[in-house]
Amino acid sequence: MSDPTRPKGPKIIAVANQKGGVGKTTTTINVAAALVEEGKRVLIVDIDPQGNASTGLGVEAEQRDKTTYDLLLDEAPLSEIIQETEIDGLLIAPATTDLSSADIEMVSNEKRSFLLHDALRQPEIDRYRLEFILIDCPPSLNLLTVNAMVAAHSVLVPLQSEFFALEGLSQLMLTIRDLRQTANPELRIEGVVMTMSDKRNNLAQQVESDARAYLGDLVFRTVIPRNVRVSEAPSFAMPVLDYDPLSKGAQAYRALAREMLGIMTPETA
Ligand code: ADP
Ligand code: MG
Predict the structure, then answer these.
(1) CATH number, domain containing residue 190
(2) How far apart are CA 250 and CA 153, in angstroms?
(3) Contact (Cβ atoms closer than 8 angstroms) between residue 252 and residue 158
(4) Closest ligand (CA of 23)
(5) pLDDT tens digits, residue range 91-122?
(6) Most buried of 83, 166, 220, 250, CB within 10 angstroms?
(7) What is the pTM of this model?
């Protein structure tokens, strides 16, 4: 799914779905970790005021001095916001609850939808030699998520197989369509990834096959299974790829990253 027309610089992917608990943060952390395993340098930009991606990678609240709040409001240089993680090649711009008020402070700015776009295109971003930036969005289609989708080249949509999943998805797709007609004509859909899939649940399997029927090739072949190791990993401040490298969850996220990179593995070929 590479795009030869894309300008140089890191590929920016917004991980978005306005529903909470569908696997955005888990997908952000583990796709990032899998891209790092493939030798890429990756920055995670946490723009959820809950800061789960920051916590899940071991950046404690007291270590979050300068955050994406400062990034959006242009109140600190990137070098003060971006932190290294325990994983070589994986960086993070952390978030705190401050961000919940950024939305209101941003509204009066006439460039309000472009704040993250502009922040991530400052020349000093080059010094990090990034190949990917993954933006972990809040569970809402608010101004923060709009900023992510205006900054991004593409949107990666985690979809949990449950009854109302597709309904929420059409709202998200309309937002993407609106942005393509206005602020970000180049915005693409990276793909929809089915998360927390349970092969024994008939309803979930039905939602999955409906998603494929409606969305066709937009749905990744790789499916992320429900796997307890995935849910345990954040409390050890690690991606599941490091917490339990051979778990089903870790293997699925590796396959997803490879599918995104266009590398075929037996599971996806
Ligand atoms: P979101 O960021 O969309 O709110 P999360 O990534 O935080 O969603 O996931 C919601 C919850 O589900 C978390 O407790 C997470 O650990 C758990 N979870 C996510 N993916 C899986 C999975 N594949 N297997 C088991 N639990 C998962
Ligand atoms: Mg989250």
Answers:
(1) 3.40.50.300
(2) 26
(3) no
(4) 1
(5) 999 999 999 998 888 989 999 999 999 999 99
(6) 250
(7) 0.95
Distance 121 CA to ligand 1 centre (A): 30
Task: For residue 127, tell me if it sits in a domain.
Answer: yes
Pair of tokens at residue 56: 């899940």
User: Tell me, what's the ipTM?
Assistant: 0.99
Angle at 197 between CA 193 and CA 203, to 5 degrees: 110
CB count within 10 Å of CB 248 equals: 16
Q: How far is the CA of 42 from the centre of ligand 2 (A)?
A: 18
CA of 137 to the centre of ligand 1 (A): 14
Which tokens belong to 45? 């930009």
Among the bound ligands, name the one nearest to the CA of residue 53.
Answer: 2
Distance CA 55, CA 71 (A): 18
Query: Closest ligand 1 atom, CA of 195?
Result: 23
**Domain annotation covers residue 4:** no
Largest CA distance in the chain: 51
- Give pLDDT tens digits for 42-79: 999 999 999 999 999 999 989 999 999 999 999 999 99
Task: Please work out whether the CB of residue 22 comes within 6 Å of at least one atom of ligand 1.
Answer: yes
Domain count, the chain: 1
Provide the domain limits for residue 98: 11-260
